[in-house]
User: What shape does this take?
Amino acid sequence: MLGPLKWQSSLIERYNQQGPRYTSYPTAVEFSEAFAPEHYLQALAKIKQQQTPLSLYVHVPFCASVCYYCGCNKIITKNRQKALPYLAAIEKEIQLVSKQLGCKPIVEQLHWGGGTPTFLTHEQTIQLFKLLEQHFQLADDFDGDYSIEIDPREADWPTMGLLRSLGFNRISLGIQDFNPTVQKAVNRLQSEAETEAIFEAARALMFKSINVDLIYGLPFQTTKSFLETLDKVVQLAPDRLSIFNYAHLPHRFKPQRRIKAENLPSAKEKLSILQHTIEHLQAAGYHYIGMDHFALPDDKLAIAQNKGELHRNFQGYTTHGHCSLIGLGVSSISQLGDNYCQNHTSVEDYIQSLEKHNQLPIKRGIQLNQDDLLRRSIIQQLICHFHVDLAKYCQPLNINWHSYFQDELTQLHPMASDGLVTIDDSKITITDSGRLLVRNICMVFDSYLAKNQPSNLFSKVI
Ligand SMILES: C[S@@+](CC[C@H](N)C(=O)[O-])C[C@H]1O[C@@H](n2cnc3c(N)ncnc32)[C@H](O)[C@@H]1O
Ligand code: SF4
Assistant: This one.
């Protein structure tokens, strides 16, 4: 098991640059509109031949109110009927995809994300779930991971009962921050009682795992105030925590214009929040899995990491790396063998493609070449396990690791002198001080970055 992280302020300040989060390699910035629906159809046909199990992602983009910090693909409305045309389009998409896949493929993992999936009425939720069951064979409760993102303001005991009875067995709760001043500044008033009620319901209904989302870097947050939130969250004992770094990009996300830059914590305060958060969570028994993610030692993610079986995809860290990932709904991304394919990001285009043109709603994508696949394996290995043996990945391709990655090794040497990595022949290991900066090390192996050099496309690595 990996030991605790070592916080080294001077290294973190020096290396804290912008960089991708590597939920894919190449990153979504490289997807091209030359990738058309027929390419997606071909990729689905291959999956059918190989009969790989599936991981399904379903995007439900609706929210009843807007949180000013939010960077997700969402539609704000209080009218639940607004979901109807969207749900009709998803139905069409499911039919088109499953027609291509043939008889009911096995699904090992299902995740509903958003937006806010619990925005849907009970009737709409049942309909969507039953539709998936009609077209896919969901593994049983023991083998399958069925998770849903829940906004505690948009759920209650009956909703939790419904979700469990349908088959969901994991939940992810948005909390962000319990502090009332912070909540007011981001337009997300959420009482502790509301959140606790969902925890109680999840435990009583035997959900297998609870994840909590928090964000650091929100307006008016201080180290002290965030640690108070963290204390309350630790008392609730979630299995996993995602602690996201707030990226203030008001030019890209309109609601963020309602957040005044002068109310944001300074860069120094933000680092202090993160440092104390890590110390606090480690002292409470949580393991740092990797980028933003912490888990209890008996959680599946921590176990998979110990066994060297962890993967990373668009849903973050996952234990279902062997599955083909099919994304359904607006903006969703599929990962099928050596292809990434993304659906339309505007709900109008998404619905139109399905309803008017009877066509899969693919907007863009990419087919990976041998170099992409090699670099993807190396980046995956680094980001999930913090070490990689270059020779292991190069030998099967008859590639000489030393000459192929000569430039990368040269770039790694100063990082080795700084104590971020150790290099032993073809083996690169990220140290306890380097783990927080894993994105920087992955960036060395990213051959696209040179072309798209530092831009505000990516968030800061810390
Ligand atoms: C789809 S939401 C979660 C479900 C539900 N809508 C909710 O808010 O409770 C996904 C998560 O993304 C995170 N998030 C959204 N916008 C963010 C931003 N600009 N920076 C960092 N994290 C963000 C939040 O932690 C949020 O809980
Ligand atoms: S954080 Fe969740 S509830 Fe808030 S706007 Fe974003 S998706 Fe909707």
